[in-house]
Amino acid sequence: MSRANSSLSALAKVAKKDPAWMDSGLMQSAYQEYCEARIVQALLVKGKFLYPKELKAPYKAYLGAMADVAGELRRYALDSIRADKVEVAERVLEYMEDILELLMSFDYPDAILPGMKRRQDMVRQVLERTRGDLTAAIRQQRLERALERAKRRTK
Asked: Rounded mean pLDDT of 14-23?
């Protein structure tokens, strides 16, 4: 992360000499990928969100990163379910809900925030699929516990 931060800072320093570069897709993508990695790490390691000021990132890139974080969190939740760590997956689902809430507060036309409506829809779908997967895992876990209790009673 330290190397990525240094590289991004150096790239931004060069790009600031020509403002067109700062708004270019290249810079936005670089900031977005960096933000995504840092946010995922902060959530999974420290349980906290990072914000644009902390990341020294433009808001458009930050919001794009938040949408992508939801997909990474879904993968983590599914891995947690497979590892029988349902409580971890529940916490991750809460992060995903917070991300959707944040993204939904940006109700701007495509000319101002290109692609935001599509990203909001994508995050909502990812969240709902994850909620369904988690619900099935919790129900299965309850069933397994009930079967185990019944098995012990019959012995």
From this structure: 68
> Domain limits at 72?
2-154
| Region for residue 34 given its phi and psi (left: phi exceeds 0; alpha: psi -120 to 50; beta: otherwise) | alpha
Q: What confidence tens digit (pLDDT) does each residue in 31-69 have?
A: 899 999 999 999 999 999 999 999 999 899 999 999 999
Would you state the torsion angle of the CA atoms of residues 68, 70, 71, 77, taken in this order, to the nearest 10 degrees?
A: 150
Q: Give how many domains the chain has, as a whole number.
A: 1
CATH code of 114's domain? 1.20.58.2140
